[in-house]
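Anyone able to model this chain together with nicotinamide-adenine-dinucleotide?
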Amino acid sequence: MSSAWAAALDQLDEAAAFIKLDPNLHEVFRTPKRILTVSIPVRMDDSRVEVFTGYRVHHSLARGPAKGGIRYHPEVSLDEVKALAMWMTWKCAVVGIPYGGAKGGVRVEPRRLSLGELERMTRRYASEILPFIGPERDVPAPDMNTDERIMAWIMDTYSMNQGYSVPGVVTGKPVSVGGSQGRGGATSRGVMFCALSALRQLGMSIDGTRVAIQGFGKVGGFAAQLFHDAGFQVVAVSDIKGGVYNARGLNPTALMRYKDGADTVAGFPAADAISNEELLELDCDLLVPAAMEDQITERNADRVRARLIVEGANGPTSPAADHILAERGIVVVPDILANSGGVTVSYFEWVQDIQAYFWSEDQVNVRLKEVMDGTYEQVRSLAEERGVRLRLAALAIGIGRVAEAHVVRGLFP
Ligand code: NAD
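re: yes, here you go
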């Protein structure tokens, strides 16, 4: 069993006990509703055929169409996709948007593919999962190593099969084909709104708050910019190739420019080199994991020095580490709350596509802030009232809402 799936089940079990979940529903929730495994044969540029493996998992459809990203990564496994799909169910429920949870993944190192190979692989994967997806069924979005160009190919593949354009089949697509203003930065913006709420809760001020960010991709890269612009001091960032640290602060615009050329932040001038392990244990105030699952574990949790962790990534903290951090008084804003800005604006995008009526970026950002601040407050007040971690409170609210949907719908047949 992968550590992500074990972690997802562990979290469900803890929350089920906390909310005294009906054991029958608990059993239903431990199993994804549907799993599709597909082979993806792709004609490579040298005319060989390579066969990749892909997945699409629907964890729950109880509250609406399934929703969740598609990940391209050499270590994608069915267990990992199952975990990510389950977290999507709780995330959509806690933030109060009418979706179930899904996730997809292809086991591939996308950097190894030419642009043409990437497009052929994406279109064949989309064709293979076609019966699973659609605006009323399941609406994919970007995740690790996928972006708006890939979403446009999926939207086009689906539309070609329908015979007309169906923008609402994916979110996170380019604005020119029905994407939403503000979607690109929405996850990072949500991370920042959560960090600001947590700072208020802890009586900390922005001034002098030192931030370390693991992962400098769509979520971590833009989060660095937003934190910097808001007055935080971004002291360290990293990606898969390594990290950089400067106690006096890094300039995210210069970092982004450097990364565009070097394809990594490692080696950025005017900063010291650090490893990903060192970044997690750095002397800082706020730690934002925005890369992979299972980064803060029982092996390093007692060496984390940040006072606050806001999880941009899904599943970066193992259940054992979560308890160690809590015992040490380190506050963790959990993934299903902290990174829910992305799926929230994906929901806005889907609503705009269905209505064919588009909002300004200001409207998107204002509504996102309302949702994030409102959700944070609900989670914080339950956590305070019951004396539990923010993660347990968020899971309790999310799982409770999915349970309620099951109860009112009843069990078919
Ligand atoms: P991305 O592919 O754009 O960026 C990932 C970053 O993490 C890159 O900088 C990469 O080099 C780095 N990375 C990968 N493996 C690493 C490792 N082992 N150690 C250190 N760094 C590593 O992906 P993204 O969309 O920014 O997603 C990052 C995380 O945020 C994932 O956990 C994803 O599920 C989660 N997330 C993303 C969104 C979204 O809207 N994109 C929404 C919610 C949650």
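The pocket of nicotinamide-adenine-dinucleotide is lined by residues 142-145, 187, 214-220, 238-240, 276, 290-292, 312-314, 339, 342 (CB under 6 Å).
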